[in-house]
Specification:
It is a single chain. Helix content is 38%, strand content 17%. The chain is of the alpha/beta class. The chain has one domain: 3-Layer(aba) Sandwich (Rossmann fold). It has a six-stranded mixed sheet, with helices on both faces. The radius of gyration is 16 Å and the shape is globular. The two termini are 32 Å apart.
């Protein structure tokens, strides 16, 4: 059995503008920086064994804020990146629909096998993410690891734990810099705490 605290990076400028990020990057907003600092103070009170992060700038920035307070080394892991949105990256939904109407329609239909031009399918995304998370869980058996990553990674794990099909619309929250505590036991994921933003002040509670 392994416990993992799974965390979405702090809010970015593109989050505020509702732009697709994926493997492209946007700096943390002022709110995002504050979220990362408040997260760090929360994790300072938690004893954990390892700190992993996506190598995307927004996740790494969030992880550095934590490491500066807790003293952990950061293990950067490219497989923890957000889904690669290819030609959609950097654009808003309306801009994508105007420029790539057919591709956007397939994307919005939640077709799991659809490979976004220049990017990856939802199936490919989940395969790489879970290969990484399973390795982390095996490496830290009977320990607690903190993993700082992206919204759709959280979404994939939550759905796996609760048996929610990926084709269904999301109704669960993906709080920026929130605490999501999971247990990996005998090959299965279990949610213990989800979307805990109690360490964030009211103006820093975002889930864009």
């Amino acid at each position: 059995m392994t416990q993992i605290i799974l965390i979405r990076h702090g809010e970015t400028l593109w989050n505020q503008q509702r732009r697709m990020q994926g493997h492209s990057d946007s700096p943390l907003s002022e709110t995002g920086v504050r979220q990362a600092q408040q997260l760090a103070q929360r994790l300072k009170q938690t004893t954990f064994n390892a700190l992993y992060s996506s190598d995307s700038g927004r996740a790494h920035h969030t992880a550095r804020s934590v490491a500066e307070v807790t003293g952990h080394d950061i293990v950067l892991e490219p497989r923890l990146r957000e889904r690669h949105f290819g030609v959609f990256e950097g654009l808003t939904g309306s801009e994508i629909e105007a420029s790539f109407p057919a591709d956007y329609a397939r994307f919005k239909s939640r077709d799991q096998a659809f490979v976004i031009p220049g990017g990856e399918s939802a199936l490919q995304f989940r395969a790489r993410v879970f290969s990484c998370l399973h390795e982390i869980a095996s490496r830290h058996a009977r320990e607690l690891a903190v993993v700082i990553t992206h919204g759709l990674v959280l979404d994939a794990v939550y759905r796996a734990a609760l048996g929610i099909p990926p084709e269904l619309p999301r109704i669960h929250e993906l709080v920026n810099a929130g605490i999501n505590r999971l247990r990996y036991d005998s090959g299965a994921w279990h949610v213990e705490v989800w979307a805990d933003g109690s360490h964030l002040d009211a103006s820093a509670l975002t889930s864009a």
